Structure formats: C-alpha cells, structure tokens
Amino acid sequence: MKLDLATPEKSRPTVEVHELTAPTACGETTILPGHARLLSELAEGILSYRTGSGTERLAVKGGVLEVKDDHILVLCDEMESPPSA
C-alpha cells in the first residue's frame, strides 16, 4: 500500500507500507492491504506503520485518514516524532 502523510506545513515522501495503525474518532484502526474504502477523523495519539525495514511511529493531532484502492492519505493538523520512552 502507498502512504502519503502531510500537515499544512510539510509533507513526507510517499512510502510503501504493509500495515498502518491510526488513532481515529472511533478508536484505534488498523489498515491492511485490500481494506475497504474509509474516511475517518483522526484523534490525538500515535500513528504507526510497518515497512519492509521496520516500524515507524508518529505523534499526530487532528486531521483525516482516507483509504482508497490500497492508497492511504493522512492529512493531520500536527505530526512529529513521539517522545522517547
């Protein structure tokens, strides 16, 4: 699946992912290949996605998540690397 991430100030390069887990208004949602179309409001929390080289995590705040034809678009108000534990 292709993943595009953007905020009003910046966007990240498109990345190929195997799965994505996001905090949505309805709770945590995991997207896998072949997922049905989805449009959801993002909640504040940790978004994570798995690539061939590992798992990436980002703290997100507000925005929307759209899934269509194995393409994931995340438009969020704020996005940053989460604090280290």
Calculate the mean pLDDT score and round it: 94
CATH superfamily: F0F1 ATP synthase delta/epsilon subunit, N-terminal
What gross morphology would you assign? Answer: globular
Provide the helix percentage. under 10%
Largest pleated sheet: 8 strands, mixed
Termini distance?
Answer: 29 Å
What percentage of amino acids are in beta strands?
over 45%
- CA radius of gyration is 12 Å
| CATH architecture assignment name | Sandwich
**What name is given to the CATH topology?**
ATP Synthase, domain 1
CATH hierarchy, class = Mainly Beta
Strand tally is 8
Task: Encode the helix/strand succession as letters.
Answer: EEEEEEEE
Quaternary state, please?
single chain
Number of helices, counting only DSSP H or I runs of 4 residues or more: 0
Spans of at least 5 consecutive residues whose pLDDT stays below 50 are none
Structural class: mainly beta
Count of separate structural domains: 1
